[in-house]
Amino acid sequence: MTVNQILSTKGKEVYSILSTNTVYEALTVMSEKNIGAILIIEDGILKGVLSERDYARKIVLKAKSSKKAFVHEIMEVDVVTVNPSDNLDYCMELMSTKRVRHLPVLENDTVIGIISISDVVKAIIEIQKDTIQHLNSYITQ
To answer: 141 falls in which pLDDT band (50, 70, 90)?
Structure first.
């Protein structure tokens, strides 16, 4: 299964903010959309990603104010991305080795979606269910 197949199931909706937004504004959007990370896109270009983990480690634990801090102060700028044609094994390897939970999907340097570790795990479980069903059918014939 590929990233594109996951996106065709879950949808390609992407939520983004600007690096000049406050962290509080970013968290508000994340809460409203029920997402764990938000992309920072400016002039159509992916500039970074902000996750709940970034907030916890760079604002809460350092006793900073989310209403006074700006996204550009804490966002991750070295964003790990994938292509629509990448397979799930590659995504799992990236998430594991790079210790990230969200992978923006780029096509021709344009963000066309984002997948989370939850999306990848769900897809792997579905593949395993199909395999088990095929094996059961084969055994019972």
So the answer is: confident
| Contact residues for 123 (Cβ-Cβ < 8 A; gap 6+) | 1, 5, 6, 9, 88
Q: In this structure, which amino acid lies at residue 47?
A: K
pLDDT of 138 > 80? The answer is no
Q: How far is CA 22 from CA 9, 17, 26, 29, 72, in A?
A: 32, 10, 6, 11, 9
- C-alpha 88/C-alpha 56 separation (Å) is 28
For tokens 């270009």, what's the residue?
Answer: 45
83, burial (CB in 10 Å: exposed 0-12, middle 13-18, buried 19+): middle
* Contact between residue 117 and residue 101 where contact means Cβ atoms under 8 Å apart: yes
- 112 phi and psi, to 5 degrees? -115, 0
